[in-house]
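Fold this sequence, please.
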Amino acid sequence: MKKYNVAVMGATGVVGTCFLNILAEREFPIKNLKLLASERSKGKSLRFAGKLYPVEILTHDSFKDVDIVLASAGASRSLEFLPSAVKAGAICVDNSSAFRMDKDVPLVVPEVNPEKIKENKGIIANPNCSTIQMVVALWPIHKAAKIKRIVVTTFQSVSGAGQKKITELWEQSKIFLAKEKVTPIELPHQIAFNLIPQIDVFLDNGYTKEEMKMVNETRKIMGDDSIQVNATCVRVPVFFAHSESVNIETEKPISPKEAKALLSKAEGVTLIDDPEHGSYPMPIFAEGKDDTFVGRIRKDESVQNGLSMWVVADNIRKGAALNAIQIAERLIK
């Protein structure tokens, strides 16, 4: 089997370390591994497949002889450094928002539009975590009944905002339970035992950037600009895994039974739908798992062709690292 020189950009972050775990788990054919991060990680080493690798400082010269770059270092660093990686001959799978809406960059979820991978010009974009799990769940239904409209409310864990927000929830919880005053540092408001209906900055239309990412990315991935999408994104006091309440309106009628039958056979989906016995997806079930979990599928009584469902996935795995590695796997095939 051919092996590849792989660079992980943002290697010391939450997604970066997950990249390494999944590459090892799935036995990705690596010849040489290069770990790249900012000056803050100078002197660090990370373990991969039983061996310690030094973390190198990211520069424009970091990509010599690299075949594949897995990047999760933020949009500004992707914009700055990935063109140098492409110039050096690497193909980059970028987890940031930098290139997602670039018309020349494929935006890929392998269960939905893998054919777009071959259209890359050196960069393939990994979608937003919330968008990924939603389109994995909706794609089989869209193919069968054509979705016209999506209304989604997300319940997003703090890990989606990085390691410092994970720490903030942990520390705030201890302070709150000690009945002491909570002072937010990383997030705009207290997150312990609270919900924050804001993820990213507000735009002129009253929606946040996170919400508009779901609108625009969904249309691009599903290849249908006619789909109407309304999103509300909420940060919740959960460490890992995002949950979503998803309501859809379809062109053709489709019953809950038919939708369940489709999803029970869908790639990357696990159906958990037995509410009478308290069986439905929850973040604690999804954490550390690769699949997107779907349940509570029911008819929307307010429209003629409508369904409602509950969708949960590990935002660090399927919502970021795993999706990127699945793209790389298909790329080398």
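The first helix runs from residue 14 to 25. The mean pLDDT is 97.
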